[in-house]
Amino acid sequence: MNEHYFQILIPAAGLVSGLIGMYVGLQNRALLAEVRKELAELENRIITRINGTYVRTGECQLREQLVHERLATMVEELKRNAAGL
After folding, report:
1. Is residue 52 part of a domain?
2. Which of the two residues, 53 and 11, has the higher pLDDT score?
């Protein structure tokens, strides 16, 4: 009689432990996917903030060159206006 219970109990225990393991594995995957998503969002926010805060060297050089060109244009206009008077 005990053999009959063991023949049912042992596979049932294996089935239950397998189902629990599968559930835990799925929960782990879902949690890992959520953490990866949050990490990607945080990375994007950090990059956006850095790009908005710091100006690249090339951009600074272009801005400085543009300012010099505008000043030179203004000086030429002032010279023409002074010569025309």
Report:
1. yes
2. 11
